[in-house]
């Protein structure tokens, strides 16, 4: 950049030559000020500063402190640059002239790269993990070393594929360090050929393995082949250790590319590659014993902390070379996972991916939502969650939103959502109504409504569903916050749809059959939106238990609110089911109403009974907690910081703002809980109801193992709590030493009540 | 090394006898505020920024700072640079400190 050297005197004064490349302005020079500053410092009083008018101590606090390892990412450690490191032999190619040592060190590099990759997936920057590898930073240099070259190439291609999945999925909001790749040589030419290069190397090594096995069994060599390295005793072990590492990379890369294929066409083959990956990981773990035994010298320290299977420090890594690339953030302390932990991480990741691949791509929104929630229970990491999101996005949602045969609405996803999710499909699709004028009018109403809301196209409800899925794929803490805010969007849609429809059709009670059908469709849409809203509210509340946001003193109000939301959810679900049952029946060309049919209709559907079981438990816990608070002074201990009302607002503000459910407030909470007494509890046991319903409804879910397991848990909680309630009712008021504890031993969000005498 | 340079510069000024500015050093440093200052530190980097603040311990705060570093220990160039903004350079790691001034100013301003 130097347009002119600093100044002529530089050499005369013997200025350090480095200054020559940093120019002063045209007419000025660099004059040494250090002696003057020194004397000035001596003249200052303690705490006195020399500063200008614009100085602000508070702002000065934010200055980056140079040479502070926590703030200064530019500290020069060993090397000034990658090139200098290479010139100093930090990353030699070949690694050693002794072929045995060379192979050994290559395996170390592979292992350390695996550990780096896991650390990256776990949230550190790419620059300071995988790309701390000098070989990767200058990949072309490794070309003569086929083994190292092929491995580094596939690592780079894999990183690129993972970055693209995560950034496409955009589930990483709080983990956005993940996709930062500035300045890293992630895009290399010819990485599309990485698999063929890897295959060639793998082929060579497996021939070498065959050859060495043949020699040991005294057979003639079928092919004239150089051995992998010079020590024949170790040949087999090394070949095997390398093969499983190479094959793992190959299959992992295949997994990633299969999962990307549209419409879930690659999922089946992805599962096969996942199984192969897991097998190779097992072999990799097994190879550790051999690698540790092949040299006499053993390394110091605990082997479980090492980042390589052999326990040796890997050659060719320097995390500091790159740390400036992670600017402007201050450098973070990086702890690369141990090799063992890294292998464990990949096992978990692959198992999570397998769960995703096993999903049947059911185009039913409800089952999709349930699947996503279930998947989140195993707390998958970012990479797995991103894959789920991509799969949702590319396959399921498109399928869900675009499954349409009518030409007019085929490109209009909104109707597809309603058709599929609001249980209208058969009736509307086959009905003449699609060609009907009133139906066209309905389309206009919705289009107008959407236009008037500034959406411009009919993608708003579409967006709501997509956003819901997106939110459900994020980590729990983020998810809860987002869901809470998201509730308002659903509420607004509901209110505006309702308004739009009412304006269009008024209070028509026209006898026209078409108009009636249109009205029905409105009702379905509104009902569906409401059901989704309460489902989101329910999820929002129970995520609070998972994140441990509620304290024991607040359980009463939380269960009370949960109860209120569940009642609404059950009501809407029931209505939805009745409506869809109705639709289905009409499709069936109206058989004669047999008494059997009538009996079936009057029964409550199992899905609603399932919710009923939740309701009983929530109500039971609310009442028990309220009674304890009202009758035993120990339980009524107001916090010195927040009043109960304030806590109520803190927890449910987002729900209250969206009016979910309507007419629910702190005062209605107080009203329904102030009169709870042990005497009333003794008369009515909600837990018994819950237990009974759970028992009854189990048979309806015999082919749904997940809900069956849930019901079993509910039954256990209900049984325990029922007994505990009896004990409390009999002794509570009399025995002041009675201790009541709440544990989540049987169910993640319904507490088991434990009574103890202290 | 830079220290020697500074001393030689001062001696030059003294022998010159042109003792034009006799005010105390604190006042003279105050006059350097808002000037471009180049601070070298022990690991070989240089920081070029606007002189913002100095405390009794000799810690310097620069504004709008650019970091310069060479890509090799042995040779001075080529230089790599990046912007850092507001930085605090503790006196313990300072190696050299230069200010940008005209040749005429140079002698009078920096005399001790």
From TrEMBL, chain A:
<dbReference type="GO" id="GO:0031417">
    <property type="term" value="C:NatC complex"/>
</dbReference>
<dbReference type="InterPro" id="IPR057983">
    <property type="entry name" value="NAA35-like_N"/>
</dbReference>
<dbReference type="InterPro" id="IPR057982">
    <property type="entry name" value="TPR_NAA35"/>
</dbReference>
<dbReference type="Pfam" id="PF25789">
    <property type="entry name" value="TPR_NAA35"/>
</dbReference>
<comment type="similarity">
    <text>Belongs to the MAK10 family.</text>
</comment>
<feature type="domain" description="NAA35-like N-terminal">
    <location>
        <begin position="47"/>
        <end position="186"/>
    </location>
</feature>
<feature type="domain" description="NAA35-like TPR repeats">
    <location>
        <begin position="356"/>
        <end position="753"/>
    </location>
</feature>
<protein>
    <recommendedName>
        <fullName>N-alpha-acetyltransferase 35, NatC auxiliary subunit</fullName>
    </recommendedName>
</protein>
<dbReference type="Pfam" id="PF04112">
    <property type="entry name" value="Mak10"/>
</dbReference>
<keyword id="KW-0963">Cytoplasm</keyword>
<dbReference type="InterPro" id="IPR007244">
    <property type="entry name" value="Naa35_N"/>
</dbReference>
From TrEMBL, chain B:
<dbReference type="InterPro" id="IPR001163">
    <property type="entry name" value="Sm_dom_euk/arc"/>
</dbReference>
<dbReference type="InterPro" id="IPR010920">
    <property type="entry name" value="LSM_dom_sf"/>
</dbReference>
<feature type="compositionally biased region" description="Low complexity">
    <location>
        <begin position="13"/>
        <end position="24"/>
    </location>
</feature>
<dbReference type="Pfam" id="PF01423">
    <property type="entry name" value="LSM"/>
</dbReference>
<feature type="domain" description="Sm">
    <location>
        <begin position="30"/>
        <end position="90"/>
    </location>
</feature>
<dbReference type="InterPro" id="IPR050914">
    <property type="entry name" value="snRNP_SmB/NAA38-like"/>
</dbReference>
<protein>
    <recommendedName>
        <fullName>Sm domain-containing protein</fullName>
    </recommendedName>
</protein>
<dbReference type="GO" id="GO:0031417">
    <property type="term" value="C:NatC complex"/>
</dbReference>
<feature type="region of interest" description="Disordered">
    <location>
        <begin position="1"/>
        <end position="26"/>
    </location>
</feature>
<dbReference type="InterPro" id="IPR034110">
    <property type="entry name" value="LSMD1_Sm"/>
</dbReference>
